[in-house]
Amino acid sequence: MTVDWADIDVDDYECVVVPGGRSPELLVTNEKAVALVGKFAAEGKVVASIDQGHLVLAASGLLKGKRCASGVPMRVISNLAGAAAVEPEGAVADGKLVTAASWPDLAEFIAHLVDLLGITVSF
């Protein structure tokens, strides 16, 4: 995405997905990025994260009291951020929060997103 943080209007989107990998290590240090993810949640939008993306959820305060799926390193972060329960694998939807432990859980992660967004897929 090549847009300035200030130009993003949450009302133009149905959800935000924080990817895993290395990018969350940079995103979590950007106050505008963290605030934007928090704004999606405050507006009742779907917020989703895979693996390292949980760093941004934790910084936004979105894991507190929620069930989530986290791999080993992010399990520590999720627990410190106040997650109510942490599943070691798979994907979990808790309200409008969707989390996945790792990339092998993408199918289940996408299934939760499709369900929450009301998307119908047919072949």
From TrEMBL:
Name the record gives this protein: DJ-1/PfpI domain-containing protein
Domain DJ-1/PfpI: residue ranges: 3-115
Tree of life domain: Eukaryota
Family designation: Belongs to the peptidase C56 family.
Stored Pfam families: DJ-1_PfpI
Naturally occurring in which organism (per UniProt): Aegilops tauschii subsp. strangulata
